[in-house]
Amino acid sequence: MPLVRIDLLEGKAPEYGVQVGQIVYQALCDVLNAPKDDLFQVITEHPKAGLQFDRNYLGVHRSNDCIFVQITLNSGRTIEMKQRFYKAVAGGLHESLKLRREDVFINLVEVPKENWSFGNGEAQYAPATP
To answer: Which CATH architecture best describes the domain 3-115?
Structure first.
């Protein structure tokens, strides 16, 4: 059910974005209980002018390595789960890719289950209509 969008500045090896996606996917499964094999990601590199962000918003000092992770997912996770998820992603990216935790910007967009169609023009998670 999650749709993950990962945005980063161009210039990294192609495998870098894939690794970011794998770390996010693992955290989704482990912490937010996303179903296994529910992998839908868009990974986009941008020129410097195409990825704008404040370098010091809320006292968090961001570098050119800052990445954006936006995830659309079903609503219903607790605040505690979300907080654990943020830490798992930032920690996993730091450990595996040496990405600074300050450079991990995450946004969750929660939607009702009926807002998904995984193909065939059907709302697979919507209640059946008579």
So the answer is: 2-Layer Sandwich (3.30)
